[in-house]
Amino acid sequence: MLDKFVTGMASLRIFSGSLEIAAALIMLRLNQVDKALAVNSALAFTGPLILILTTTIGLVGMADKLSWGKIGWILCGVAFLLYGILKK
Q: Mean pLDDT throughout 43-60?
C-alpha cells in the first residue's frame, strides 16, 4: 500500500509536470513570442507554489519523526530557496 503523503506529493508533481507540458503545447500552438511569454509568465507562479505544497505535505507526513528544531531548519531552507528564486 502506498503512503498517502508520498501519493499526495507525487500527484502534485505529476500535475505540475502536466501543466508544464500543456503550457509548452499552448506556446507552440500560439506561435507568437509575446503570447508565449505571457503563458510562461503565468507558469512562474506554479513552481514555487508546488514546492511549498509538496514540502508541506512531506513535513506533515514526517511531523511525528522530526523535532521542532529540524522542522524549523527545513522551513528556513525552503524560505531561502524561495527568496533566491523569487528575488529580482
A: 88
